[in-house]
């Protein structure tokens, strides 16, 4: 949010008075999301949560297909990561849930992470249904076999408290579409020794 607005690069839908404070988005009303379009359901997402006034309790919908004006948390039909930096606590807590059109279902129970004022969150979602979570570059937990939502239309953040901010949102610029399987490679000459051939590649993410 270093450009100082919600209206371009990209356009955010702001229905409840979010403001930009110190190049980060700050809510003014609990529950109502700040959201934008995103059609990626696989890949890697990143977001930074920063505490203010001793707390930060927000939900990051990294996959969402529905919006409602009647439900308090107005993004749904997808997955969200909930980050809770509680005032006076010794740790922060992270959970991951699946949210249909009604109540949400927890798929990764609360995991405590070290208390930090600035919290960089990474989420990796693979076509196999595996979701991996990282906090400040440290692996937190993996959950598996969750393929209820394989498409997405939006990402956004719903605040539970109005304290705390978020910024530095990264989304996948290309979806991971399959799993690599072994194949025969003809080198054209006889190998002097044999070992595994390790393939590496880089999937670059885009920032919004």
Task: Give the topology.
Layout: E1 13-14, E2 19-21, E3 24-26, E4 34-37, E5 43-50, E6 56-67, E7 75-85, E8 91-99, E9 104-114, E10 118-125, E11 131-135, E12 138-143, E13 154-159, E14 165-172, E15 205-207
Antiparallel strand pairs: 1-4, 2-3, 4-13, 5-10, 5-14, 6-7, 6-13, 7-8, 8-9, 10-11, 11-12, 14-15
Q: How would you sum up this structure, described in words?
A:
The protein contains no helices and 15 strands. The protein is mainly β and 208 residues long. The radius of gyration is 19 Å and the shape is globular. It starts with 12 loop residues before the first strand and ends with a strand.
Summary?
The protein is an all-beta fold and 208 residues long.
Secondary structure class reads mainly beta
- Summed up, the helix count is 0
Write out the strand line-up for the largest beta sheet, numbering strands in chain order. 1-4-13-6-7-8-9
Helix content: under 10%
Oligomer state equals single chain
Q: β content, as a range?
A: over 45%
Run of helices and strands: EEEEEEEEEEEEEEE
């Amino acid at each position: 949010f270093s450009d100082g607005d919600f209206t371009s690069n990209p356009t955010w839908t702001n229905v409840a008075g979010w403001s930009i404070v110190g190049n980060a988005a700050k809510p003014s009303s609990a529950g109502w999301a700040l959201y934008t379009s995103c059609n990626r359901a696989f890949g890697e997402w990143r977001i930074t949560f920063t505490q203010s006034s001793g707390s930060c309790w927000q939900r990051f919908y990294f996959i969402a297909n529905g919006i409602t004006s009647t439900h308090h948390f107005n993004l749904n039909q997808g997955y969200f990561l909930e980050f809770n930096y509680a005032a006076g606590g010794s740790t922060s807590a992270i959970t991951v849930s699946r949210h249909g059109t009604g109540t949400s279902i927890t798929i990764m129970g609360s995991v405590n992470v070290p208390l930090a004022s600035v919290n960089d969150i990474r989420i990796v979602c693979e076509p196999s249904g595996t979701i991996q979570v990282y906090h400040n570059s440290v692996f937190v937990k993996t959950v598996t076999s969750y393929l209820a939502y394989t498409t997405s239309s939006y990402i956004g953040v719903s605040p539970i408290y109005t304290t705390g901010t978020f910024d530095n949102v990264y989304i996948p610029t290309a979806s991971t579409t399959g799993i690599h399987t072994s194949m025969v490679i003809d080198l054209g000459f006889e190998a002097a020794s044999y070992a595994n051939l390790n393939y590496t590649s880089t999937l670059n993410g885009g920032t919004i």
